[in-house]
Amino acid sequence: MTTFQPATIPGEPPPADSVRPRDSTPQAPTSVARLNDTIRGFIQNWGSVWVEGEITAWNQRGGNVFGRLKDLVTDATISFRIWSSTRERLPGDLKVGDHIIACVKADYFSKTGDFSFGVSAMRHVGLGDQLERLERLRVQLRSEGLFDPARKKPIPFLPHVIGLITGENSDAEKDVHRNAELRWPQVRFRTKYAAVQGDRCVPETIAALKALDAAPEVDVIVIARGGGDPQTLLGFSDERLVRAVAAATTPVVSAIGHENDHPLLDDVADLRASTPTDAAKRVVPDVAEQHAIVAQLRSRLTSRLTQRLSHDIAQLEQLRSRPVLRAPESLLTSRAHEVELLAARGRERVDRALDVQGRRTAELRATLRALSPASTLARGYAIAHLADGVIVRDAAQAPASTAVLVTVGRGSFAARSEGPIEEDPGDGAAGTPT
Which domain holds residue 272? Predict the structure, then answer.
């Protein structure tokens, strides 16, 4: 901001007809005209200064212009006037919202007591300087992660209520409504109007954004403005607005200007639309297109199901046409004879094995019978037992008068020994059958 010093040296005496504080008393007050003349005399001693600011009012009366200039940082403002003779030398495209520098000189109207600045020169601030400042801000915000795609919120497929921030009765509002309703007739809007340029643009847009963001029924917010020169779109690159959009919990769509316009709002928004019309098309689905998609999906589903059923029916018919499934009993019939043969062969082998084992058993029985003591007794032999059950094997075991039990082939009888008998060498061996 350019500052200036009074053109006169401090302490320089005022004009001769001016009034000093000590020149007036309750008993001898000065006149209003003399006070105004004194003030005008001081102000006229100031020289011209160059100031920088934003035009917030531009009222043309005849060939003269009366307006206001706002500081770029604070809310300080000044009034200015441009006489018709000066207006002819200034750019013809000056308007509200322009960022300008002006050569002004203070003036005080002693008749009305109004203070104003007369403009002798005014021009736009170089666009390159503005773009440079915007790029520096863009780099700063990007470094903070405000443009990170990971933080962007998805846009709902079919929003119940669309919040719209735009100028009242603007073409942007009409474009959004018309295109959205053509695509989805039941679409609902909740609109907040805000200035789309000038000093009211940023605060009003932020207020509208906060109001819509706090409304639970609003699913997405669209900030829309028609095209304009870079000067008029500066409000949508304001750091305050950019940070407010980043802090919003509701998805925000930026639809500012035309395709080539690129305010910082585009970078921080969850979705950037090239125009308000494009915003309506990207936020609201096309009901005809969705019907076509549903019809296409239904057709594809019907085709897939028909194809699958046809395939399964053909496969089932193929399985049913196989002999084993067409006449399942044939498998048993063809195997019945084989089973009978195997059963007969098994019986024959079992019978043969039984015969062989029967003969073997008979032979073993005969052998055992031949070796059995009973067979020996049946041939006439006998077994003598002493009273304690000991078998008599030696004649000396049964001296005279010894009671013995004699077992023969059929039963047993008691006997008493007469004592051992001396054997005659000519006799046969002992143990001859009785």
Answer: 130-285
pLDDT above 80 (res 88):
yes
What is the distance between the alpha carbons of residues 124 and 101, in angstroms, rounded to a whole number? 6
CATH number at residue 173: 3.40.50.261
CA–CA dist 281, 144 (Å, integer): 31
* pLDDT score of 266: 93
Single out the residue of 434, 385, 380 nearest to residue 405, CA to CA: 385
Measured CA to CA, the distance from residue 71 to residue 55 in angstroms comes to 9
Same domain, 135 and 201: yes
Mean pLDDT for the stretch of residues 83-104? 87
More confident residue, 48 or 219: 219
Predicted local distance difference test score (pLDDT) of residue 425: 60
Residues 155 and 255 in one domain: yes
pLDDT at 249 over 80: yes
Cβ atoms within 10 Å, residue 157: 10
Asked if residue 88 belongs to a domain, the reply is yes
Same domain, 136 and 118: no
**Single-letter residue type at 266:** D
63 and 140 inside one domain: no
Domain count, the chain: 4
Average pLDDT over residues 191-209: 92
Strands (E), 20-98: 49-61, 64-70, 77-82
Residue 350 domain-assigned? no
Q: For strand 162-166 and strand 189-193, is the pairing parallel, antiparallel, or unpaired?
A: parallel
pTM: 0.48
Instruction: Determine the pLDDT at residue 395.
Output: 85
Cα(122)–Cα(66) distance, integer angstroms: 14
Q: How far apart are CA 316 and CA 321, in angstroms?
A: 9
- Cβ-count burial of 26 within 10 angstroms (0-12 exposed, 13-18 middle, 19+ buried)? exposed
146/355 Cα distance (integer angstroms): 104
**Among 53-57, 179-183, 245-249, 365-369, whose mean pLDDT is lowest?**
365-369
Q: Is 242 in contact with 146 (CB distance < 8 Å)?
A: yes
